[in-house]
């Protein structure tokens, strides 16, 4: 098993569930970042709203930083799931 194997999600039903859960999290974070950047951009039209606009950009940037973190956590979950399945197979043998 290696990290970032494109076929990892198809190894087992457990891997497929892991993929689905992390894909949902990744998509939610992606939408949140896009929405925050859109709101921040609109708020910059009014000088009185510049501070909230800046905060939207900061929080949106944090969301973008979370995306690779989510992918790495998914890959580590795949590795953990694979080890559990290997142990289960050894116990059955």
Which structural traits does this protein have?
YrhK_domain, 93 residues, membrane
Strand and helix map with partners:
Elements: H1 13-43, H2 50-92
**Residue share in helix:** over 70%
Structure classification: mainly alpha
Gap from first CA to last CA: 21 Å
Low-confidence stretches: none
- Estimate the mean pLDDT confidence: 90
Quick gist of this model?
By secondary structure, this protein is an all-alpha fold.
Q: How would you describe this protein?
A:
- The chain is mainly alpha-helical and 93 residues long.
- It has one domain.
- Helices cover 80% and strands 0% of the residues.
- It is built from 2 helices and no strands.
- It has helices at residues 13-43, 50-92.
- The longest helix has 43 residues, at 50-92.
- The model has no long low-confidence stretch (mean pLDDT 90).
- This is YrhK domain-containing protein.
- It comes from Paralimibaculum aggregatum.
- The chain crosses the membrane at residues 21-46, 52-70.
- Keywords: Membrane, Transmembrane, Transmembrane helix.
